[in-house]
Amino acid sequence: MKTRISASQLFSAIVLVPFGSAVLFYINPKAKQDAWLAILIYIIPAVILQLIYTSLWSKYPEDTLVTYMPKIWGKPIGYTLSIIYTIFFAYEAARVLRDFAELISIASMPKIPPYLTSLILMFAISYGLFNGIETFSRIMHVCLYLWIFFFISEWIFLYTTPEDLKFSNLEPILENGIIPIIKDSWKLITFPFGESVLFTMIFPLVVEKSKVKKTAVFAIILEGILLSLNTIMFLAVLGVDFASDSLFPLLQTLRTMHIGSVLDRLDIFIILIMTLVGFLKIGFFTYGAALGTSQLLKVKDTKYISVLFCILVTIVSLIIAKNYPQHIYIGQTITLTYIHLPLTVFVPIITLLVYKIKYIIQKKRTRL
């Protein structure tokens, strides 16, 4: 039976997969108190990037990124790019696993070592992937509504906690104008928005193919709005300096909420929801790597390959950095600049241009 997911499930996944780990951090600290505005501005290039992804897929609607790259670039370059993207998806899964293992260790279970948390998470993910990506897609759809409910609840509880929200922390707005914000915030296009390149592996699985482009665009817009509101929350509660220096500003923000003795430490419930979303994000990236490998090896069943990648992802997550601050440093400097930028932005744009050039040349030849 062929794997199929609905357009609504695709929408939920595109919103929550990049949002799942981006929500943990104060992304784009260089923009300071204008970080929330920078996210809204970069929704526009993010939508354009999404249109590039869907445009490439529309040329080969039954193919994934891994299978249409050789058709556009030719076998030597195309297969090399396909292998690189497969490794990229596995690496991203490892990075997110490290993020959430550290979060659980710091926030709720400090006596349990992160490697044990990673093993438990990946064991559950391997079981889920063995049963198919449809399971993850259905859970992701439910999680979107659940996360929006908790997101609204966070604002309500913060508002009702005395002197928690200080919107004066957002001032001054555009102190140095809009150009420095755009210049300093370019990494937003790579993370979180660029992570949606993963869904070039999922587009062929969608039943309502005519809805893919619209679904992808609206999902990116909602993701940007939610991230902008999340950043405003960090700034209003913590201030720009504390939000920038904190490893987990969301955790620090939620711990300021006090709604009587019954609802004290509400942050634990939010962390559970976040961990569930992170669990699904790791699953999607691991599936992307497993699916890409199975297509390169021409293996129809991805179940056992998914299990092998779960083991690989767990090992990589433990060795990619000596400690969590080093992990964050590598992610914000090396990974975003030298891995995310070329693979999520440059390669897709150049690939679309190569396709257009080849199409024009082929059209001229047919006329002759």
Helix content: over 70%
Mean pLDDT: 89
User: Compute the gyration radius: what is it?
Assistant: 21 Å
Report the count of strand segments.
0
Question: Which segments are poorly predicted (pLDDT under 50) over 5 or more consecutive residues?
Answer: none
Please report which band the strand proportion falls in: under 5%, 5-15%, 15-25%, 25-35%, 35-45% or over 45%: under 5%
Q: Note the quaternary state here.
A: single chain
The topology string of helices and strands comes to HHHHHHHHHHHHHH
Largest sheet: none
Q: In one word, what is the shape?
A: globular
State the end-to-end distance.
45 Å
Which structural category do the helix and sheet elements fall into? Answer: mainly alpha
How many helices does DSSP assign? 14
Salient structural properties:
single chain, 368 residues, mainly alpha, 14 helices, 72% helix, globular
